[in-house]
Amino acid sequence: MRQKWTEEEIWSWYKAQPWITGFNFIPSGAMNGGIWLLQDYDHERAYRESSKEIALAASLGFNSIRFFVPFYLWRVQHDSFMKNFEELLSLLDLYHMTMMPVLFNDCCVAKSKYTEPVLGPQPEPVPGYFGGTSVTPFDEDTQNGDIIGYDITDEPEMEPTVHAYVKELAQTYGQDNRILIWNIWNEAGNSQRMEKSVSLMKKVFEWMREEDVKQPLTADVWGAGAEHPYGWLKNPGIYADVERTAIELSDIITFHFYGDYAHSRMYIKCLKEYGRPMINTEWMHRPYRSIIQTHLPLWKKEKIGSYFFGFVNGKAQFNYVWEFIKNLPDIDTRLWMHDIFHSDFTPYDEEEIDVIRECNRDKKIF
After folding, report:
1. To pair with 63 at 20 to 30 A between CA atoms, which of 25, 102, 249, 305?
2. Phi and psi at residue 121, in whole multiples of 5°?
3. 0.90 exceeded by pTM
4. Which residues contact 233 (CB under 8 A, 6 or more apart)?
């Protein structure tokens, strides 16, 4: 499509799909799972370990993953990146699963703390921290203070490289059925960035459409501009221009919501006003009362696609809550925040697995 899909076009596409049911796949073998899996170093082992997790997912009836694609790795190890990315798509296809690639991301740390990703042997996590490190965009200063997150794409001289990256992925995979949707930007406006990525985000949408990719394009809405991230969960809506821009650019509405059942229904009602199909691309947060048992059936009943966050617990330590909510009075830190399996593939909660199997058994929702 060389222009934004019409409502009729996107609904026709969406109704032709089985119910989209998956998760954010961060391989458990490293804090930066995408780098670990797709880098050249020790790739065979990383691929072998990740293959076991994909096989486990397929056994539960999942049919898609959302995957953060490491732009950095494309720049520094281009040929092996492309080969390994193709290998991952082939693995998914073997299990009749698709991918929603995430190209860029506004969850980032301050420039003073920014470092390039580690290649080669991956570092060990710091115990007790979500993401495996105390340097995080989810601390109090970045989420609620004056610190503005930094990304290498902020540098003006990076734009030609970004364009080349987008163009190559679009030309290589823009007609590929293994790619379900292109997730152009994750949480635009996060880390106090607000409008900082909007100009480039618009260009990436434009570059994708210039290549006439056949898949829908989207950028997530997630609560940018709300007075406080936690408070937004009790009063969900669209508050900032960056979110309005994301919706205006997107063919399909993708959103993040970690809130409880009642407020999830409230947000669904809000987003239905835009008249397009919806997919929740990040949810499942036990301390926030976003749980498999209540929410997965809700998304399916409402004909909303689902990608919860995490899968197999590992070095990224997604069981720990974000730093900025650790001291909130009603957060039970004994509960895992994300992930549904221990590293040995035993379930965190057997009841969750039963609900997943039941929901995933029949994917006909229209």
Report:
1. 249
2. -55, 135
3. yes
4. 223, 257, 258, 259, 260, 263, 288
